Amino acid sequence: MSSSCFVYFCVFVFNRWSNTRQSMASESSSDSMSILAAKICNQINSVFTKSTSTPSPLQITVDEIASAAARCGKIFVYGVGREGLMMKALCMRLAHLGLSAHCVGDMTTPPISSSDLLIASAGPGGFSTVDAICGVAKSNGGRVLLLTAQPETGSSVKYASVVAYVAAQTMADDGDEGTSASLLPMGSVYEGALFVLFEMVVYKLVHVLGQNPDQIRSRHTNLE
């Protein structure tokens, strides 16, 4: 990029930024941080108020993790992109609860066996990598819990031992004709729903596994 083009680019960015600031400053109170946060939280909350098959994704996930813990099995998690970040957040809390929890892809991840559980997420129904990982887990006798918003059409479903339906918008239906406009783009609603779901899962598991705050806190790393 020539120096003159760069200058024009900087001027353009500055003007856009300046106009955006003026626009934000003139916004009504309906667009305040607290109101916007409430709108986003309400949209994520709506995922859990929709009529879905029973048992709920919360009950399924708690039951599967508790069963794996009862048989002294390891728990593996896997997801891609922002879904993967939510899975890693769950994995950290499972480790805090004293479970043998591992993120697929880490250099220290052990092999999966018949006593173990893989929890995988494929919001739009399937990803090539999720399909592959679930296939490997299944072929080695592991139990596969799949979290998805597309339980009927997803390519990952055929590898699942059990499917937890999270009825949220994903990239698969973002912007579909006939659907109401969403505050959040692409798969953000699904990803936010995963985070909330996993917080509920951990809340339930604390009681199921008989853990207390001191025990949970004692397992947090001191290398940070």
From TrEMBL:
Domain of life: Eukaryota
SUPFAM superfamilies with a match to the protein in the record: SIS domain (SSF53697)
Cited PROSITE patterns: SIS (PS51464)
A single GO molecular function term of this UniProt record: carbohydrate derivative binding
Stretches assigned to the SIS domain: 65-211
One Gene Ontology biological process: carbohydrate derivative metabolic process
N-terminal signal peptide: none
InterPro entries recorded: PHI/rmpB, SIS_dom, SIS_dom_sf
The family this protein is said to belong to: Belongs to the SIS family. PHI subfamily.
Protein's UniProt name: SIS domain-containing protein
Lineage of producing organism: Eukaryota, Viridiplantae, Streptophyta, Embryophyta, Tracheophyta
